[in-house]
Amino acid sequence: MSASSSTAPMEHISIASLSHLPSRVQYLRTFIGFTDEDAAALHAAAPVVAPLVPTVVDAVYTKLLSFDITAKAFVPRQTGFTGEATAKLEDLSLEHPHVKFRKDFLGQYLVKVVSMDYDKDETWEYLDKVGLMHTGVAGFAHRKKKPALRVELVHCAILLGYVEDILANAVLNHPDLDLATKTAVLRAVNKILWIQNDLFARHYVRDAELEERQVRIERTSAAAAAFGIFALGVGFARYVAPLWRK
């Protein structure tokens, strides 16, 4: 038997399909191998992750506040926050009300990652909106008509890596988990965070091939519209010409 005869048939993925969230998610899941078993591993990890959430959140925000370029995102008043904001980076700390307010969102996100139903479109829509909301565009309804919140992709991407490192260390060193469980959880966390990384990047990075296709569509539409106007003009001229000669 030849090597080629034993390989699976090649699946076609159109570039246009990647602009459609469900199709993109399906491609990502298939490519990285995110299965029902991975979802089950994440759900099984909930009792491990839940007690770690406060520690993970504090570690993440300690890291974010250690660089001025990331800390400055916490200065503007955030949607829903009614307490005292700050105008100075030096005033920010883990205990600052504005930072505490933002920490709550990350805590909720971590809980969702190990509890959401990954068979539902709503789950992937939520993860996609998490990426979108950091671009300055209102990802969630409550941010519409609110000041833009933009965090550059470089910070979002490396933060996901930092979160994964914290979770990996916690799982690897957990005394009550056997090797098989640790392996399953770590692989599932790795897969979902890489998918999340793409659901950030898709809102920041323009795909050259997809953009070129969009340009072609726009040019074709413009040409068709121009031809239609020309044809309409010719028809109109043929109609009124006899009238002018009378």
From TrEMBL:
Ranges for domain Globin-sensor: 23-208
Record carries keyword Membrane: yes
Gene Ontology molecular function terms on file: heme binding; oxygen binding
InterPro entries to which the protein is assigned, alphabetical: Globin-like_sf (IPR009050), Globin-sensor_dom (IPR044398), Globin/Proto (IPR012292)
Source taxon at top rank: Eukaryota
Protein name: Globin-sensor domain-containing protein
Transmembrane recorded as keyword: yes
Keywords tagged on the record: Membrane, Transmembrane, Transmembrane helix
Classification via Pfam families: Protoglobin
Species of provenance: Hypsizygus marmoreus (White beech mushroom)
Membrane spanning residue stretches: 222-241
